[in-house]
Amino acid sequence: MRGHREDSLSKYESISLPKFGPDLSGLNLDNITYYAPTGIDATDDWGELPDHIREVYEKLGIPEAEHKWLAGVGAQYESDIIYHSLKEEWEKSGVIFMDMDDAVKEHPVLVREYFMKCVPNSDHKFAALHGAVWSGGTFLYVPKGVVVTEPLQAYFRMNAPNMGQFEHTLIIVDEGAEVHYIEGCSAPKFGSKGLHAGCVEIYAKQGSKVRYSSVENWSKDTYNLNTKRAIVEKDAVIEWVGGNLGAGVTMLYPCSVLAGEGARSDHFGVAFASGEQWQDTGAKVIHSAPHTSSKIVSKSVSKAGGTCTYRGLVKIGENASNSVVSVECDALLLDDLSRTDTIPDIKLRNNDVTIAHEARVGKLSAEDLFYLTSRGIAEEEAKAMIVNGFMDPIVRLLPLEYAVEMNRLIELEMEGSVG
């Protein structure tokens, strides 16, 4: 691992910043705190955590959700995992769910086989940086044929100024297994720039099914430059469900590599940009085998000068005959100050495929607003209702508690939107 870190650092120093998308000149990488230890040993007993940390997570609803509907929970505070638990029934089934730092020590063979093989450190500058300074994160292994019927969740919290968080999530779902993994992320606002450059690697083995859901609500002084990718084998399914509301700048494009015949990927994403926010999000799908299919549905809302960009890639390889692709991009502009762009990139190396792409941009309907306000609903509330309805097809795919959180976050963003 030390050798990998050193190699990553060397690559980081030789790779330039991205030449597309948002302006990253305001990010001072020399001013970032790359590791902030909590000084707290990880535990599976919630009561052992200090009061001030427990209070943060209890406000976020983590322990309550664990008791009600989760199979296991991991919680990271700054650079360290501070809490990790897994229900006994899943431990007995052979499921491994632990923090990534411990996985390096306890499961070195598995980690060596998969760690940053899906997202190599040569991929881009922030993948190289991640490879050099990563800390914390989640390791999840689901054995052959095991169907985990309750979601597993990890929650990442940055709670210090100029903080950089670089958690690594490694998920291996063996043949015929199924799992739903959820990540939540947040940070308070400090008035100084923070950086989130995590990495998610998912390996969906033959016939498996994986759903990865995330709600990212970093503060608006955070640069969210995350990398997520899955390798999907024969007849396996990967579903990405994501919500991006926070961060001043986001560059995030979950990627599916459909490597086996009959593999499928579904990408569902929502983004909300307000003020000076730039949400540069989308999806990438690489079809490398025949009879593969993918669906991308992206919805965005721009308000008060915010910018939302859909940036997508669909690549059909020479061997990907009889593949089917559907891409839908819907954008909603709430005023004349805001901006939305759709930048699709479709590369075809096989003619025996079916591809559909559509993009639509609209504004709030004056008719709908009149209808709601004429029935006694305040204009601000009416706008929030329309926006929630616009995003509902994707938000409803989230677990109930996260869907409620997303709707509430949207309502908070909409407050003061009249005029």
What does this structure look like?
By secondary structure, the chain is of the alpha/beta class. It folds into two domains: 363 residues, no CATH class; 55 residues, no CATH class. It is 23% helix and 38% strand. It contains ten helices and 24 strands. Strands 3, 4, 6, 7, 9, 10, 12, 13, 15, 16, 18, 19, 21 and 23 form a 14-stranded mixed beta sheet that branches. A ten-stranded mixed beta sheet has the order 2-1-5-8-11-14-17-20-22-24. A hairpin with a 2-residue loop joins β1 and β2. The longest helix has 17 residues. It is globular, with a radius of gyration of 21 Å.
Summarize the structure.
This protein is α/β, with parallel strands linked by helices and 419 residues long.
Helix content: 10-25%
Total domains: 2
Radius of gyration: 21 Å
DSSP summary: helix tally: 10
Low-confidence stretches: 65-70
Largest sheet composition: 14 strands, mixed
**How would the global form be characterised?**
globular
Mean pLDDT over all positions: 86
User: How much strand content do the residues show?
Assistant: 35-45%
Structural class: alpha/beta
Give the topology:
Blueprint: H1 2-14, H2 51-59, H3 62-69, E1 72-77, E2 80-86, H4 88-92, E3 96-99, H5 100-106, H6 108-114, H7 125-133, E4 137-142, E5 152-157, E6 164-165, E7 168-173, E8 178-186, E9 194-196, E10 199-204, E11 209-217, E12 222-224, E13 227-232, E14 237-244, E15 249-252, E16 255-258, E17 264-274, E18 278-281, E19 284-287, E20 293-303, E21 307-316, E22 323-333, E23 339-348, E24 353-363, H8 366-373, H9 379-395, H10 400-414
Parallel strand pairs: 1-5, 4-7, 5-8, 6-9, 7-10, 8-11, 9-12, 10-13, 11-14, 12-15, 13-16, 14-17, 15-18, 16-19, 17-20, 18-21, 19-21, 20-22, 21-23, 22-24
Antiparallel strand pairs: 1-2, 3-4
